Amino acid sequence: MIDFRPVAYVCGVIVACFGSAMFVPMLVDMIHRNGEWKTFAVSGVLTFLVGTCMALSTRNAVGDGLTIRQTFILTTGVFVVIPMFGALPFMFGASELSFTDALFESMSGITTTGSTVIVGLDAMPRGLLLWRGMLQWLGGVSVIIVALVFLPLLRVGGMQLFRWDSYDSLGTILPRAAEVTRWISLIYLLLSAVCLLAFLASGLQIFDAIVYTMTTVATGGFATHDTSFQNLPMATEYVAPAFMFLASLPFFRYYQLANKNIVPLFRDAQIRSFIRLCVVVILALVIWQVLVNGEPIERAFRQSLFNGMSILTGTGYVSADYGSWGSFPVVLFFTLGLIGGCAGSTSCSVKIFRFQLLFAAIQARIQKIKSPHAVVVPRYAGMQVPGDVVRSVLVFFVIFIGTLAGGTMLLALSGLDFVTALSGTATALANVGPGLGPIIGPTGTFAELDNFPKWVLTFLMLAGRLELSAVYALLSVKFWQG
């Protein structure tokens, strides 16, 4: 029998803190004399009280650690409970969304996906716009903590490769989570502060700069305008990609850098491959825009840099309708959305290291075929990769492809065309944001979709953000037996 009380305690503490955060947009609306502050006041009090009651009623059940099943439940449970409370301002506020739309928007924020069902952002109260940014900012730091603390212990998708040497047991998971949270939060705050100053220097107004800072360092993509970056100062199209890139690097490397250990940052195989991929993608897009579409070099470089980095990192901003650039960029953007940045960052999707391990396993298999009697072991960053890591990565790819196919069929059954169904599934599963086509493309929203596809996409955002296995394990009957 699973004891849910330790899980409820942790969820309660997080929900109470989450409720307290709602008072920030409440104050913003009060300063601007907007009656919407009442929405955040009621939502914040309700959320805080529920979280406090959960924590107080289960505080005596917290021991030294969590079992493996409790850890799985906690990892997924937090990302289920928080979006439900985060949806309250969308339901009761100026957006007046239905529960389905509000949960979709909230889940998109917490998972840093960036897909939206809200139309008319320019007319929305500032408190609501700030709340969208806060959802992604809080979700971004939560994703880093989950990636560095929980997923390595759960052996999800090869993440055990990044397990800390001094942290290898479930019994220390809660104390270690608190320790990691402290220094991750400091680094996250510092990166956000520098990003804010850069946006202000680029010409953004203070409110836009704050919100775009939150959604940039979280690689989330929520904007304060319906046109995203299309009508903002051109300098912002250089600032944003720089911080999308920095947010897509492993945050534990920043921790090492802060401790004056700079060597791992430059020797990290993920980072080197990610940089090479960024350079190749941007060059390919620039060449296409200049030679095929006849764009001026500066504009071609600026838009290629911005939109290429936005999709590769899973941020989802747009500064142009890249759907009209031609078939090659469209296919390239779709492919980039399925790659993502580095593990241990706010970036999403499959992650660079899994492709590296996949190619290493394929190469080892080819060598084994050529030399049947040779002992061939896949290598990553100069080290031998344990068999359980390789198997975990291969299982991840199988589940990812299967989920992509299944989600596409479900959306197609709801009446959506193939491009919308496929790109919608891919962008939700990879937590990228915009899809392809006239409905959910770079200049569209998900507002026109029916409830059924929105529920499918909401689940896919959750599953994709938690690396699939952490969610699917809870759907297994065997998980709950014994």
In helices, the fraction of residues equals 55-70%
Unreliable stretches (pLDDT < 50, length at least 5) are 165-171
Q: What is the number of strand segments?
A: 2
Output the number of helix runs: 22
Tertiary shape: globular
Strand content: under 5%
Q: What sequence of helices (H) and strands (E) makes up the elements?
A: HHHHHHHHHHHHHHHHEEHHHHHH
Structural class given helices, strands, pairing?
mainly alpha
Distance between the termini: 7 Å
What's the rounded overall pLDDT mean? Answer: 91
Topology:
Blueprint (H helix, E strand, L loop, with lengths): L4 H17 L1 H9 L5 H22 L9 H19 L1 H5 L6 H12 L15 H29 L18 H29 L4 H12 L18 H12 L3 H8 L4 H5 L1 H23 L5 H16 L14 H11 L14 H19 L8 E2 L2 E2 L2 H27 L4 H12 L7 H4 L10 H15 L3 H4 L4 H4 L2
Antiparallel strand pairs: 1-2
Question: How would you describe the overall organization of this protein?
Answer:
The structure is a single chain. By secondary structure, the chain is mostly helical. It has helices spanning 5-21, 23-31, 37-58, 68-86, 88-92, 99-110, 126-154, 173-201, 206-217, 236-247, 251-258, 263-267, 269-291, 297-312, 327-337, 352-370, 387-413, 418-429, 437-440, 451-465, 469-472, 477-480; strands at 379-380, 383-384. Helix 2 runs antiparallel to helix 3 and helix 18 (418-429) packs parallel to helix 20. The termini are close together.
